[in-house]
Design goal:
9 helices; mainly alpha; single chain; binds iron/sulfur cluster
Length: 134
C-alpha cells in the first residue's frame, strides 16, 4: 500500500539547506553514527543526528537557534561515518551560512579582552572570525 504524504515534503528551509550543502537531507535514516563519533557532541544542545532530523522536517527555528551548529568543529568525522554518504559537516555549514547571511554575528571581535587577544593563536582568531562573523 502506498502512503500518501499530505503537503510539501521539502519546505523552503529544507530546499535552502539542500541547495547550500548539496546534500539530500531525506537520505538520512537516523542511525545515529554521526552523533556517536562526534567529538563535540558532549557540549552540544542537539546531537548532530537531531539537527539533521529537524532539518528534514523543515523546523527552521530550532535548527538555526541551536548551539550545535556553532560548536561543530567541521572535523568531518560524521561525514566519514555516515552509511548514507551524507556530508553532515556541510549541512552544519549551510545552517551557519543562513544565519550569517542575516548579518547576525556569533562573536563580537571588539569585545574579546586584550589579554586574550595576545594569548590566543592568531590562526584560531582568524578562523573563528571567518566562521562566526558575517
Ligand atoms: S550517520 Fe548519516 S544516516 Fe546516520 S543519522 Fe547521521 S546523517 Fe543520518
Ligand atoms: S563535523 Fe561537526 S557535527 Fe560532524 S563530527 Fe565534526 S564536530 Fe561533529
Amino acid at each position: 500500500m502506498r502512503i500518501k504524504i499530505k503537503g510539501e515534503i521539502r519546505n523552503e528551509f529544507v530546499r535552502k539547506i539542500e541547495e547550500l550543502s548539496e546534500q539530500n537531507l531525506l537520505g538520512c535514516y537516523q542511525c545515529g553514527k554521526c552523533s556517536a563519533g562526534c567529538p563535540s557532541a558532549p557540549f552540544m544542545d542537539l546531537l548532530p543526528n537531531q539537527v539533521i532530523r529537524l532539518a528534514q522536517l523543515g523546523r527552521k527555528e530550532e535548527v538555526l537557534n541551536c548551539k550545535t551548529i556553532w560548536l561543530c568543529a567541521s572535523c568531518f568525522a560524521c561525514s566519514v561515518r555516515c552509511p548514507k554518504g551524507i556530508d553532515l559537516a556541510k549541512v552544519m555549514e549551510s545552517a551557519r551560512q543562513i544565519v550569517l547571511r542575516q548579518n547576525i554575528d556569533q562573536i563580537e571581535p571588539l569585545k574579546i579582552p586584550k589579554e586574550e587577544v595576545v594569548e590566543l593563536p592568531q590562526i584560531a582568531l582568524v578562523s573563528n572570525f571567518r566562521k562566526l562573523t558575517a
